[in-house]
Structure formats: C-alpha cells, structure tokens
Structure prediction request, 150 residues.
Amino acid sequence: MKLDSMYQEIILDHYRNPHGKGLRAGDAEVHHVNPTCGDEITLRVRLEGATVADVSYESQGCSISQASASVLNDLVVGKSVGDAQAVQEAFLELMQSKGQGEGDEEVLEDAVAFAGVSKYPARVKCALLSWMAWKDATAKALAEQPAIND
Ligand code: ZN
Prediction:
C-alpha cells in the first residue's frame, strides 16, 4: 500500500499517540471485529443531551484501524450528534470513493489522510471499523435516552 507521505505521517502519528484511548463511562458499548484483518474494538459513547460528550475505546489491530479510532475521537467528541453523524457520513463516502475522493478538509480534518486507503478494499474495512462501531453505539445510546430531542 502506497500513501502520500504526509498522509502516512498523520496516520502513523495517530497510531503511535492515539487520542482518547481507554474505556471510560458510557451510555452504550459495542464490540466490533474486522475478521479480514483481525482488528477489534470495544467502544463506548457517552451523550449529554444531544452532544457527544465522550467516545472511549480499547482496540487492537493494524495501524490503519488504530489511527482511525484516534481520528474518530478527535472529530466527534464535543459535536452535536447530528454534526458528528454528518462527519461520519462524509468519511464513509470518502472510504467508498475507490481512490477518487479527496475529502473536505474543513469537515474531515485529519481523516482526509485516509483518502488513499480507499483504493484498497481490504483496508477500507480497517479504516471504517471504529466509525461503524461509533455509529452503532450512538444509535444504542440514543435509543436509551428519554425522548428529549424531538
Ligand atoms: Zn486492519
């Protein structure tokens, strides 16, 4: 796999110094596995009203999956659930672009570093693992909330 060297540096940086790693209190927990690579993540979401107050996780696996969880933490914590879901959708779209997408840096920040990964179908699952876990955990956390958002 060959990625732009600056992007590779961003990914390695998150891999070496993952942001927000470790399990903390949450409203919902999920465990997701990417069997093709062996990546695993246990992820918890804590909401405060309609805000993503925390995303905590324990994970193991390849550098792409680990770096992606760190970037996810950066991008969704502190945002409203709606804004965070929009970021998740933008990242999913980038990962499904088969190497054609560049990603909007205003929305995706460090996550644009994964653009080159979208050329490698096997690695797309690595990059998406934590994001799908987050989506799942957030849906669970919302389902357990009293209906205050609508
Ligand atoms: Zn992987």
